[in-house]
């Protein structure tokens, strides 16, 4: 900037010096009439000369003012890139101004110095003007480029302004949408959602009216369901689903501008001249059913949302407003879907509650029926076993007497009939407990071959009596000592073998016992069943084959159902209730096994096979001191054994006393719990065994047993044994829990009574023996 001022000062000084020189120097020789004193220039027209003089003065003044303005511009612009061009241009203007300024003196007589000064100034003006022109040749493209860049930047700035306006609009739309969404999703009730949507849209967009059209049940029409300005109408307002405007809206995902003259437009406005209208579809979610926790959904229909602008404002729908309507419609559709799922889940929950109530009521009724049945069975069990006890006991006593052949035959018939009736009672009670799940296996160690041979020995006389060949074989690899339910295994084996003997008129019955290793023949009706052989367990296979009646293929599956036999002639010719195989199947299933029947047809015999699982006993834990039952019984002498019998039934008292007297016992009988306690409290009453009936009036056997434990020390009280007809496990467990020493079930024969008393005396008190 300092250089600029120095250059400008130099230029002004040069101009002044030139003017002074022109005023003082005379004209050079050789040019006539150019002296400053004698010669003068005359103007042909004095007025024109004066005008040119004034013009030159004004032009010179203008030329001198322009550099001052450029100097001011350059001094105020700190980043102007072409200052040297400004200097050239300023010099050019100053020189032009000086040229016009000197020209003032040329309109009248002037000296030679004026001519020289004007010439010098014109030469300098020409030089500076040429230099400036040459410089502008290079600068003008750059200036044009700057101008183009300026225009480009202006265009970009305008675009940015438009984009900012769009962003602001979108932010405003988003803010409104968030507010609407927040208000809409505050509830999951469908009507609340739609009413909130109408109110909030009307506030945000300043709507005149807003309506929602819902499809009817069959989808043939749209019905006005919600409206911002509700009308009092008696008949629902409907529009056919096939209307052109309706189809256009349903088939378009975006919002649609609709004319006020269409069906939707006419019904959505209350005025003759209505404002601009827009409509958008609302997908409706239908939940068909819940499967695996997830509802099956499908978009079967659409609702329509119609929005009406005020007619007085003359507004038209703008793009961002339509976009906001579309976003809100999507949010409303989501909220409606959630509401639909909630409504369906609530309906499902209500149905489940009703079903649960019905199931609970049915369960209570079933439990009541089961309790009634169990009570009935318990009563019938007690009432049937009580006379059976007398029949079996007295019959066994008669068998011990001196009878004629005819008398013995009749007594044997009575014993067999009573045994058959007792077996029938046991089958009915066992099956009832199997059905309600109250029967539990009694797991204990036992000698497996001995139990199996006992079943064979019991069936062999029946087979020999019918002239049948009876084969019984136990494989060498069958273990001796196992853990399981000895009684249920014996019962199942006897039932299957007994059926084979019963339904075979001639031929043979063969019993094969072996260890099942998983490679044997299985049930052809259930080929997928295989024994899961695990360590510490063994699967026992019992196969009973006969040459008897045989079976039809269609009859085999029915035989394991209760009260079912092959045909009516079977029951008529052979008797039976049809419970045996049903009970065997239940027992086998409890022992983690399987049972099935195979037959080639009628008259070709049949084969019954059952497989059960038993637990093995390690050899080091097997007791080596097992002795036979006869040896155990012979070790206890029952003669003189003091026994107190307490029973409210006179027949039972007589029968039990007869059995004990036959065994040589010293028997005392009483008929109530109070008499029992009084008898035990008498001085010198040293009873060794107390046979106590559980079902007695006033004081039952349980209370008598508890009072005995409270009154008498262990050394002074007898062995307390329950004598009962109840066969359920709960009765036995309760007897043992209150401290009884054993349980004897009615009916009981002479031999069973002797065996039970010997076991009780051998084991002593607090061991809990159960027959």
From TrEMBL:
It is a multi-pass membrane protein. Keywords: ATP-binding, Coiled coil, Copper, Disulfide bond, Endoplasmic reticulum, Ethylene signaling pathway, Kinase, Membrane, Metal-binding, Nucleotide-binding, Phosphoprotein, Receptor, Signal, Transferase, Transmembrane, Transmembrane helix, Two-component regulatory system. The keyword Signal applies. Residues 379-616 form the Histidine kinase domain. SMART domains: GAF (SM00065), HATPase_c (SM00387), HisKA (SM00388), REC (SM00448). Cu cation binds at residues 96, 100. Binds 1 copper ion per dimer. This is Ethylene receptor. It comes from Riccia sorocarpa.
